[in-house]
Amino acid sequence: MLARPGEKVKIKVKVNGIWYEREVEPRKLLVHFLRDDLGLTGTKIGCDTSTCGACTVLMNGKSVKSCTVLAVQADGAEITTIEDGDGKLRAIQEAFKENFALQCGYCTPGMIMQSYYLLSENPSPSEEEIREGLHGNICRCTGYQNIVKAVQDASRRLVKQ
Ligand code: FES
Ligand code: FES
Description:
This protein is an alpha+beta fold and 161 residues long. Helices cover 35% and strands 16% of the residues. A 5-stranded mixed β-sheet has the order 2-1-5-3-4, sandwiched between helices. The radius of gyration is 16 Å and the shape is elongated. The structure holds FE2/S2 (inorganic) cluster (2 copies).
């Protein structure tokens, strides 16, 4: 796709079950598209350099760091963010809340989206697999212990469903 400087490109993206059509600059990152164009500010920006995982969303069912994806690359894709009303996502959110798996909460949307992906791939992960699955998401507050417990709790809840 070629665009002149300043020229915008039309994209169509399905986010949390709703199709959106917008014109974006080709250099716009997916995280900025979600937050600034769609007002979905649950997805956070921690580093902007693909290190922290705060911006994690699902793209066609796979977790991606939305600060490393251009909005134009999401053209035609299905994106799931922390705002989605899906029951599985709600169960993970409840597990995080009840296990005190957050303090400031800044990393939490990304942690939950990565946990969602992890549990989709592996519904009953071991502690080691959880730690491995979340290694790209950084939390500065909790020490990870309760995050691991929350994912174990979410796994039990979802297996029962
Ligand atoms: S903001 Fe994307 S990985 Fe940190
Ligand atoms: S709860 Fe504060 S960064 Fe994780």
